[in-house]
Amino acid sequence: MNSADATADSSTTALATQSIDDMSRSYALTTRLDDLVAWGRKNSLWPMPYGTACCGIELMSVMGPRYDLARFGAEVVRFSPRQADLLIVAGTITEKMAPVLVRIYEQMLEPKYVLSMGACASSGGFYRAYHVLQGADKVIPVDVYVPGCPPTPEAVLDGIMALQRMIATHQPRPWKDKWKSPYEQA
Ligand code: SF4
């Protein structure tokens, strides 16, 4: 390499360094680590559907192309609680299924969230009967309730967005902090 080439190379490198410096100045952003983590967390929810009745079928349309839950970063549906952080309870919970629901909740990763979809999951719905749990919150901590029988996909999306706001603003969740398994051995 002759001296002219070397000079050209060094001036190109200097120019590249300067433009990287300029770019880093124009794109720099400041935030708190907590906020950055919350931003990532709210946009990468991994739902586990606990569909026991008709609401489970309605939930499928939320995942489909028309409503497309992927737009909210929550399309990676897992059927293992150990790979999920958002439990979507969709359907009637019988008393016999309640311990199973609790077991699944306990196996999920922290931080974890629960969305109760529809009247049955939220309050037992029209089943005022001895064999039906009168709301998932009788056994697990619920963060968001979506009303309806069944709720519309838009209502479910609204519930997901409410949960995302809750995560982004670090909303305290005393119902979760104070939760104890109703089946815990004394
Ligand atoms: S809330 Fe209505 S649609 Fe949903 S599981 Fe109950 S009966 Fe079915």
In total, the number of strands is: 4
Q: Calculate Rg over CA atoms.
A: 24 Å
User: Which hetero compounds are present in the coordinates?
Assistant: iron/sulfur cluster
Order of helices and strands: HHEHEHEHEHH
Task: Provide a count of the helices.
Answer: 7
Classify the secondary structure makeup into a structural class. alpha/beta
Widest sheet: strand ordering: 1-2-3-4
Roughly how much helix do the residues carry, as a percent range?
40-55%
What fraction of the residues are assigned to beta strands by DSSP? 5-15%
Provide the low-confidence segments as ranges. Answer: none
Outline type: elongated
User: What average pLDDT do the residues reach?
Assistant: 91
Instruction: Characterize the largest beta sheet: strand count, sense, and whether it forms a barrel.
Output: 4 strands, parallel
Give the end-to-end Cα distance, rounded to a whole number of Å: 81 Å
